[in-house]
Amino acid sequence: MGSKYDVLVIGGGNAALCAAIAARRGGASVLVLEGAPKFYRGGNTRHTRNMRCAHDAATEILTGPYTEDEFWKDLLVVTGGQTDEELARHMIRESKDILNWIVEQGVRWQPSLGGTLSLGRTNSFFLGGGRAMLNALYLTAERLGVAVEYDAEVTDLVIEDGMFLAARVKRPIDGETEIRAISLVAAAGGFEANIEWLKEHWGEAADNFLIRGTPYNRGSILKMLLERGVQEVGDPTQCHAVAIDARAPKFDGGIITRHDSVVFGIVVNKHAQRFYDEGEDIWPKRYAIWGRLVAAQPDQIAYIIFDSTVVTSFMPTLFPPIAGRTVAELAGKLTLDPAALERTIADFNAAVRPGTFDHTILDDCRTEGITPPKTHWARRIETPPYLAYPVRPGITFTYLGTRVNKEARMLMKDGRSSANMFAAGEIMAGNVLGKGYAAGIGMTIGSVFGRIAGREAAKHARN
Amino acid sequence: MHGTRILDEADRLMTVCNSCRYCEGLCAVFPAMEMRRAFSDGDLNYLANLCHACGACYVDCQFSPPHEFNVNVPKTLAIARAESYAAYAWPRVLSVTFARNGLVISIVAALSMAAFILGFVALTDRSVLFGVHTGPGAFYKLMPHNAMAALFSAAFLYAILALVMSVRAFWRDIGDPIGGRADGGSLLQAIRDAGELRYLHGGGVGCYNEDDRPTDRRKLHHHLTSYGFLLCFAATSVATLYHYLLGREAPYPWWDLPVVLGTLGGVGLIAGPIGLFVAKMRRAPELLDQERYGMDVGFIVMLFLTGATGLALLLLRETAAMGPLLALHLGAVFALFITMPYGKFVHGLYRFAALVRYAQERRTEST
After folding, report:
1. In this complex, do B56 and A255 lie within 8 Å of one another by their Cβ atoms?
2. Among all residues of chain A, which has the CA nearest to that of B204?
3. ipTM (interface predicted TM)
């Protein structure tokens, strides 16, 4: 027994819900198939916190204007030019309206609190975080009459000549069923939780990766679409990887496993050797490169080493630092060679030149005569207890996706556009974000293209 | 390690929350938490009493169960909060009263007091109890005003003393410097925050009750209850002034100030507690401290009985039912007074103290 909807949305995150709401508001009947159980609904949106939107003036939630041009320049810098300019500029233009549209869908922004949180000029923060944002979108979608199914695993897509016909779905209770729809919106995320797929590009190292988000982002919809003639975009080896605590769970550790202490110490590998300039650049760039750096080290493990003078300089951490009264004792606890770690720290300390420390700018505290250098914020590590965080690559999302046009319509391998298939969110993020990342862009891509995809899918269905 | 298992758990959660901070815009608990990196027992009791149990942080948390980090702040702080009532109770020996079933304590206390007053009257003249009495001084035919005043003043003063001593101990544990006084600005801020139940709003959408659809019902019923209580208290205070300053004796006509205040308050004390009770019955069990069900329900029932017997007395005061109803009403009020320091009533005071402390911290931080 099958059922038929105007618009079928596969996925349950920000992009999917924006698409579902926009399609429903466009007059279509809409079904959302979320592969995860209700608690885990929303993919990586669960773990997000803010969205980057262009705006022309300060508001009660944003400290100043962020022009389209400035947004475009930032995007150009982080992607190193690997972006579709027409799509990117379109997204940035649409992002201005999204700031308000998303509020109309029940999402609330966090007002300025003062205190420890400094609100951004560029990014708006969701009140209560990403899951609160999702909860609001789901309530709105349900109120509008969007049907939502959880634990709904899509096992096959029936696509003929670039035209979506039906999806086969495995439900926990009534088994396999076929669902037909006039339009499809694919918003089912990337494949970062699919270790086998990651291994195709990263080799055995991928076994040591930790996945920061949901275990449900296995990329099965992406794979089906690419196999059925949709044109791919983006580099399959590209993924957003940061260094997270090695003690974090394999999946879904989320935001609280991060470490922002690199700049206050040194980072060594399992041979107790430094391997990169810890003082190269300021947040957030320094943050986003460390996942890849650690992934390139033997056994994909590294240790951030610092001393007791800096423990209150960074965010409190979920896992406490590992401590030793001496460098040798610390090395023992980390199962590093004590002599090697002592030598690395002694060499580093000897190379530190006097300067004025200021972690908010590229200061003049640096080393001389060692490789790699630490070009900023270099201070001697000499006040016990000595402390360390073990870190591994934490994969946030992947870039391989489906190519789309400005209508969020998928493009087929032969260059034609699909009649009725649209994509939004991480599954097409690679169009805009060929590599690199700037905070909040994932949510911008999701909301902007989700809304477009929903609107266009409804328009197609109602024609 | 902390004094109790629940404080250990609260400490673990605050460590998780402090490394996340997504909830910092929802209420005062999280900004207060962010001002600390380590948490003493006093800090945790402070945070527990700052929590209004709106449930928003549970529904919004990516790490709430079934996630392995198992973050349930509202429930953990609810248990810690209830344990803090016992921990600061005065005199210390009476902290065991919190461990007992509040409903039983309250009802037994109310009935025994009613029986006591009934007996008191019956000993003097049985016909008085069931007679019809009208006009000024009608109530005092059953029990002389001075006896009534003495009995209730004693109960009231004892309750005040016990409450002051308890709150003092709490304040010393959560505040610094030790014994420090609250400034006027912080007090005013806390009065505003408590008066409007600012933090029972789930960050603006309402409180989470039976499911993930927030509403403002619990806030409304809490307002009805607490303002109903305050109106009744005002009614009694005005009546006392009438008696001693103007020499006017109860009962007063329906349009007179004490009766108007008491009637409005009584309606609040009936509608509010019923609403709170229904909300409690329906609330998602994962948000509730079920161990302390009795204490909460006991207090709700005491307030309801106070309001209901008061209004019944007003309606039937010119009939033969007046005597028994007066006894019941006085019994309920008396029992409410003497159980106040050992039941849910204290939550209002501790919460207020926590709000004062929070206002103070915010002011200090911003200067």
Report:
1. no
2. A108
3. 0.93
What are the tokens at B200?
A: 């029972």
- Whether the CB-CB separation of B358 and B32 falls below 8 Å is answered with yes
Q: Chain B contact for A252, CB < 8 A?
A: yes
pLDDT of res. A112: 67
Which of A152-156, A423-427, B104-108 shows the lowest mean pLDDT across its residues?
A: B104-108
Cβ contact A430:A394 at 8 Å: no
Question: Does the beta-carbon distance from B25 to A127 stay under 8 Å?
Answer: yes
Which residue of A135, A139, A316 is in closest CB contact with B37? A316
Whether B23 and chain A come into contact, CB under 8 Å, resolves to: yes
List CB contacts (< 8 A) between B213 and chain A: 139
DSSP characters over B66-91: TSTT---HHHHHHHHHHHHHHHT-SS
Q: Which residues in chain A touch residue B66, judged by CB atoms under 8 angstroms apart?
A: 39
Cα gap A430→A233, rounded to integer Å: 6
Identify the pLDDT of residue B2.
85
Handedness of CA A33, A36, A37, A42 (dihedral sign): negative
| Strand A50-52 with A123-125, pairing | antiparallel
CA dihedral B192, B196, B202, B207 (to 10 degrees): 160
Interface test with B, best of A252, A256, A260 (most B CBs within 10 A): A256
Both tokens assigned to A407: 């209508």
DSSP assignment of A45-68: GGG--EEE--BSS--SS-SS-B-H
The Cα–Cα gap between B256 and B239 comes to 10
- Between CA B297 and CA B278 the distance in angstroms is 10
- CB within 8 A of B282, min separation 6: which ones? B209, B210
Contact in structure between A154 and A10 (CB atoms under 8 Å): yes
Closest partner CB to B20 (pick from A117, A256, A312): A256
Nearest Cα residue in chain B from A250: B68
Q: For residue B207, what are the β-bridge partners?
A: B215
The confidence band for B294, taking pLDDT boundaries of 50, 70 and 90, is confident
Structure token pair of residue B104: 């039983």
Contact B51, B29 (CB under 8 A): yes
* β-strand partners of A236: none
Q: Whole-angstrom Cα distance, residue A427 to residue A446? A: 9
B213 reaches A (C-beta below 8 A): yes
Residue A113 has pLDDT above 70, yes or no: no
- CA-based Rg of chain A, rounded to a whole angstrom? 23
- Is any Cβ of chain B less than 8 angstroms from the Cβ of A103? no
CB A142 within 8 A of CB B211: no
Are the Cβ atoms of A117 and B366 closer than 8 angstroms?
no
- Residue numbers of B between 38 and 67 with CB closer than 8 Å to A: 56-57, 59-63, 66-67
Do residues A369 and A351 make contact, with C-beta atoms less than 8 angstroms apart? Answer: yes
**Nearest chain A residue to B14, by CA:** A318
pLDDT at position A175 is 85
* pLDDT band for position A115 (cuts 50, 70, 90): very low
Dihedral sign, CA of B288, B291, B295, B300?
Answer: positive
Distance from CA of A130 to the nearest CA of B (A): 8
The closest CB to that of A128, out of B22, B63, B212, belongs to B22
Q: How confident is the model at residue A118 (pLDDT cuts 50, 70, 90)?
A: low
Is A108 within 8 Å of B204 when comparing Cβ atoms? yes
- List the single residue in A with minimal CA-CA distance to B57: A128
CA pair distance B318, B330, nearest whole angstrom: 17
Q: Which residues of A409-434 are buried (b: 16+ CB within 10 A; e: fewer)?
A: bbbbeeeeebebbbbbbbbbbbbbbb
Average pLDDT over residues B183-187: 92
Cα–Cα distance between A338 and A292 in angstroms, integer?
A: 26
The pLDDT value recorded for residue A461 is 95
Is residue B7 within 8 Å of B44, Cβ to Cβ?
Answer: yes
